[in-house]
Amino acid sequence: MKTAKNLTFYAVGRLAFGVAALGAPALVGRAFAGAGGAEPDAQAFLRGVGGREIGLALGLLAALRADGPVRPWLIAGVLADSSDLAGIAGTWQHLPPAKRWLGVGTAGAAAAMGAALLARPAAS
């Protein structure tokens, strides 16, 4: 049961971030990348990220509700978060220092939590 609660917490966190990125991309963009994050092209990208996060969260929640396999959803989330880390690394020198660490902390924590949940035997 504890694992189900952890999986739900993980999914709801993804859902909340996704809703924020989709609904307020300029705000999320400024928080994670500075003033350039509020530009229209960054907002378009963040809306896509928001949709990705919502899709991953709803898929995981649906699998939990149906007592179905959650492992594919966790793998997809870890891959998405790892891709975010790679993206941050690729623009590291252009990001304000505080924004670098916010992005690495957020994506890193999500990837680590997903990996930890994958490591549990109940994540089938």
Structure write-up:
By secondary structure, the chain is mostly helical. The chain has one domain. The protein contains five helices and no strands. The chain has helices spanning 2-23, 25-33, 40-65, 71-90, 97-119. Helix 1 (2-23) packs antiparallel against helix 3 and helix 4 (71-90) runs antiparallel to helix 5. The protein is globular.
Topology:
Blueprint: H1 2-23, H2 25-33, H3 40-65, H4 71-90, H5 97-119
Helix pairs in contact: 1-2, 1-3, 1-5, 2-3, 3-4, 4-5
- The helix content, as a percent range, equals over 70%
**What general form does the structure show?**
globular
Helix-and-strand structural type: mainly alpha
Tell me the distance between the termini.
14 Å
In short:
With 124 residues, the chain is mainly alpha-helical. The chain has five helices and no strands.
Features:
single chain, 124 residues, mainly alpha, 81% helix
